[in-house]
């Protein structure tokens, strides 16, 4: 193992898996390094809300299996952080809310159990916006995580998978579970300069995950690279089949749809410039870039998705909020209570199906569409307007059932990362992941190279 990474610090998941397989690192050393970094840096970052007390003992068990030739696979011994909407046996599931009990749950959620069975080791639970309701990462019963790219000023981490994104970006864990209802994996990935993947719905069961909007909720992943995310997603798939139920890989040249200027009117000029530059890099790599015009503006889909989500969130959480309003934060409480005034659910779902059919038709000339993940980089917490969530470029994928993924492409003038998002047709997850890995190489973003310097102020 390179002397610069004696315990795996700073290495991506796939590098750690190789080092374990070749005997250059032990799981105990990797997990110890993660825990050391958490104890050192997390009092500043607020990424974790609870730590597992058995991580080191499980790491030693993993090393023993590997010495006997009984490793459960490439992920055996790799650390994992889990968003606090997922049940983890022996830890409470608070969901970022004072309304949920602090008692440990007896069993892990389906996704967590799946990865535990593959030998992955849960480090702990990460912060989430209350009940998963929010895009900035600022509304929670615990202190909001700090974006690690600016420790001098408290900037938003993105939500609702706020702690998971911060933990990966700051090197506290190589990979993290999140959930995505309207951008809750991709927005924090964009703001924190990492990869965030929202699969097609239905591929990974949500049993044991606190619901918000069952129509839109999807298990997602946050990692340092597309390959890291793809490796864990493959392990998560029910039945162990190929991603998206298809073995299709990206074969150049792909047809990439870009957005016209009218769709970008809320995007800052520097993010627009990074977006266009990334598309130029993809064109130079041999892909065909052409203008995509959807049946509706993305902000229309965003608004419609918000209506469905609030209606469903009220159906799930409304009674508890009305019975004990003092236990919920005012922003999330009022937001969810607005869901009782929405149109009948069956009307909204029928309208959604019509929009999906029209959008599918519009995508027939394209393999993927490319768009900014967020209109700007992360802003200071003090500048947040909770009535304006940064979901205009993300909610549409949940509303239309598309897989979508964000990769970092550069920095704003303030030094905050900027994300580029790709979306594909439903169940084209394998193709999307394959293409995104190619795009990662073609764009050659400066963000990963600078990520290793994060969080040194606490050293």
Automatic annotation (TrEMBL):
Matches recorded under PROSITE patterns: AMIDASES
Superkingdom of source: Bacteria
SUPFAM superfamilies: Amidase signature (AS) enzymes
Positions of the Amidase domain: 30-433
PANTHER family with a match to the protein in the record: AMIDASE AMID-RELATED (PTHR11895:SF176), TRANSAMIDASE (PTHR11895)
Protein name: Amidase
Species this chain originates from: Azospirillum endophyticum
């Amino acid at each position: 193992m390179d002397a610069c990474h004696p315990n795996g610090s700073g290495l991506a998941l796939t590098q750690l898996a190789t080092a374990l397989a070749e005997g250059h690192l032990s799981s105990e050393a990797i997990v110890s390094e993660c825990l050391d970094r958490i104890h050192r840096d997390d009092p500043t970052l607020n990424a974790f809300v609870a730590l597992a007390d058995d991580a080191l003992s499980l790491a030693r068990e993993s090393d023993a299996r590997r010495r006997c030739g009984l490793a459960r696979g490439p992920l055996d011994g790799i650390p994992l952080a889990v968003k606090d909407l997922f049940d983890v046996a022996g830890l409470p599931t608070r969901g970022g809310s004072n309304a949920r009990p602090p008692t440990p749950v007896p069993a892990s959620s389906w996704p967590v159990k799946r990865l535990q069975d593959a030998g992955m080791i849960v480090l702990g639970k990460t912060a989430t916006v209350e009940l998963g309701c929010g895009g900035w990462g600022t509304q929670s019963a615990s202190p909001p995580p700090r974006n690690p790219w600016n420790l001098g000023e408290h900037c938003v981490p993105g939500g609702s998978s706020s702690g998971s994104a911060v933990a990966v970006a700051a090197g506290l864990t190589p990979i993290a579970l999140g959930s995505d209802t309207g951008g809750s994996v991709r927005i924090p990935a964009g703001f924190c300069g990492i990869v965030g993947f929202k699969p097609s719905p239905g591929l990974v069961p949500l049993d044991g995950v606190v619901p918000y909007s069952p129509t839109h909720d999807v298990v997602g992943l946050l990692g340092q690279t597309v390959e890291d995310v793809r490796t864990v997603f493959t392990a998560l798939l029910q039945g162990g089949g190929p991603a998206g139920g298809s073995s299709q890989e990206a074969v150049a040249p792909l047809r990439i749809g870009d957005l016209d200027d009218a769709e970008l009117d809320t995007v800052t000029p520097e993010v627009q410039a990074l977006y266009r530059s990334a598309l130029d890099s993809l064109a130079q790599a041999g892909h065909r870039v052409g203008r995509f015009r959807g049946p509706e503006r993305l902000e229309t889909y965003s608004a419609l998705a918000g209506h469905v989500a609030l209606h469903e969130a009220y159906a799930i959480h409304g009674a508890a909020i009305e019975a004990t309003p003092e236990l919920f934060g005012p922003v999330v409480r009022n937001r969810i209570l607005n869901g009782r005034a929405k149109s009948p659910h069956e009307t909204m779902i029928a309208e959604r199906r019509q929009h999906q059919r029209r959008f599918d038709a519009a995508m027939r000339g394209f393999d993927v569409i490319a768009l900014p993940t967020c209109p700007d980089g992360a802003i200071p917490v003090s500048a947040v307007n909770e009535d304006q969530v940064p979901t205009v470029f993300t909610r549409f994928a949940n509303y239309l059932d598309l897989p979508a993924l964000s990769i970092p492409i550069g920095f704003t003038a303030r030094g905050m990362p900027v994300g580029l998002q790709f979306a594909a047709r439903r169940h084209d997850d394998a193709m999307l992941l394959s293409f995104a890995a190619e795009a990662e190489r073609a764009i050659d973003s400066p963000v990963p190279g600078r990520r290793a310097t994060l969080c040194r102020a606490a050293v």
